Amino acid sequence: MIVVTRLNATRFAINPDLIERIQENPDTVVVLVNGAKYVVTESMEELIGLIAAQRARVVSLAHLGGPEDRIPSTPQPLPRRP
């Protein structure tokens, strides 16, 4: 999930796998595959960076342990960056 901000300053999370496209004209609009549209304060470049970072985090977490460690039976806290 990536966290984005509406124009009224409320924040919410979007599953980046459901994003169909991002438009800027001049406001940034995120269009999901189901047709839902969200106007957000982040720029297109910021959203692309958030999506890339989220996907890199998923890949990194997948490589932390062996196959038995990839899906914990109970939720685990994310490792903190130094």
Task: Please tell me about this protein's structure.
The protein starts with a strand and ends in a 20-residue tail after the last helix. It has 82 residues and is α+β, with helices and mostly antiparallel strands. The protein is built from one helix and five strands. It has one helix at residues 44-62, and strands at 2-5, 11-14, 19-24, 28-32, 37-40. The protein is elongated. Strands 3-4-5 form a three-stranded antiparallel beta sheet, with no helix packed on it. The chain has one domain (2-64). 6% of the residues are buried. Helices cover 23% and strands 28% of the residues. A hairpin with a 5-residue loop joins β1 (2-5) and β2. It comes from Paeniglutamicibacter cryotolerans. This is Flagellar protein FlbD. Keywords: Cell projection, Cilium, Flagellum.
Tell me the layout of helices and strands:
Elements: E1 2-5, E2 11-14, E3 19-24, E4 28-32, E5 37-40, H1 44-62
Antiparallel strand pairs: 1-2, 3-4, 4-5
Structural class: alpha+beta
Helix content: 10-25%
- Chain-averaged pLDDT: 87
Return the string of H and E elements: EEEEEH
Rg estimate, integer Å:
15 Å
Number of domains: 1
Main β sheet profile: 3 strands, antiparallel
Pfam family, one: FlbD
Keywords: Cell projection, Cilium, Flagellum
Protein name: Flagellar protein FlbD
InterPro entries: SwrD-like
